[in-house]
Amino acid sequence: MKLAKRVSTLTPSSTLAITAKAKELREQGHDVIGLGAGEPDFNTPQYIINAAVRSMEEGHTKYTPSAGLPALKNAIIGKFKTDQQIEYSAENILVGSGAKHVLYTLFQAILDEGDEVIIPTPYWVSYPEQVKLAGGNPIYIEGHEDNAFKVTADQIKKAITSKTKAFILNSPSNPTGSMYSEEELKTIGEVCLKHNILIVSDEIYEKLVYDGAKHTSIAQLSSELQKQTIVINGVSKSHSMTGWRIGYAAGDSTIIKAMTNLASHSTSNPTTNAQYGTIAAYTKDDGSVETMRAAFEERLNGVYEKLTKIPGVSCVKPKGAFYLFPNVSEAAKMNGFSSVDDWVAAILEEEKVALVPGSGFGAPNNVRLSYATAFEAIEEALNRLERFINNHM
Ligand code: PLP
Description:
CATH class of the largest domain: Alpha Beta
Enzyme class: transferase
Distance between the termini: 49 Å
GO molecular function, one term: pyridoxal phosphate binding
Order of helices and strands: HHEHHEHEHEHEHEHEEHHHEHHEEEH
EC number: 2.6.1.-
Number of domains: 2
CATH architecture of the largest domain: 3-Layer(aba) Sandwich
Radius of gyration: 21 Å
CATH topology of the largest domain: Aspartate Aminotransferase, domain 2
Bound molecules: pyridoxal-5'-phosphate
InterPro entries: Aminotransferase_I/II_large, AspAT/PAT-like, NHTrfase_class1_PyrdxlP-BS, PyrdxlP-dep_Trfase, PyrdxlP-dep_Trfase_major, PyrdxlP-dep_Trfase_small
Keywords: Aminotransferase, Pyridoxal phosphate, Transferase
């Protein structure tokens, strides 16, 4: 059977691929430490689980409106009011099956064949693939390491053509953990407004920020920017709810309506009990979001110090998310490897440590390691990494 052209160039998610390989080795009896995970290692807070269970017991086991329960939209609107001091109406909100699928729906709704989307590198692996699946062309601009992997308004300006439709902003970023300041967002916003470029602002790591850093949404900087921006967010990372598959988009009602129509023919609605759980997540607070954030911060500080002492490894200190994105090109070279990809494969084979090569994120000199795992496991992984580097000098 000949497959469709649209899937022929599709590359599998490198993050999921490394996690699968680590799992395979583990099943063969190897003591593998996986630092590939893109999800918190905590269980979902109990009050959220209780709310979802209760909803099912009360008979909420049927379809809901395609864009989500009105009560959930209200809870999301309340969240924006509290956290970003911005107002949305129900017609500005679409709840979907995870932020990933909401982004997919967005690109399907806004892109025509040949439309361009500006994507800063390093990028989250799914952005380019989703843009391509919608017929669009990803246009990459490089976030330089000496600017904490962030792009500038000037770089965006230079990449704009008559075909540019959107710009993807991800702050805090996966994989780098970098965050844009209010000042930087303002200058980026000006360029996008001037050229009428839709800003897709993926804020899924909003709650995971460290060292006193403050998350600013570009949508909160002015009413013009709010209109120009589709905010993408969800509860996967903030409330450790990756398996529940709830994410949402907030923005222009025409785009949201088109996305809702698409959702009505693809998912029908996000899972009903997960929506009830999310209402609880956003209307109650038992302190667990902050407890998890603080745990990540403690790990980050411990791990960062140890990581940056390893020969041939340098790392920009992240301000958010739960990843470190060190440059290991020097270490790989010292070990006689011509690519970081090969070096990562050898480390998994020999030391049973699963890192994600940066090539999948458009940054071939780096690797991503997640600290969403027990501190002792990360420490042991770094010991093994150091041993590998020293053994291969
Ligand atoms: N955006 C970024 C930057 C992510 O890292 C992820 C998950 O890895 C997502 C979106 C998708 O999150 P969700 O679990 O809500 O689909």
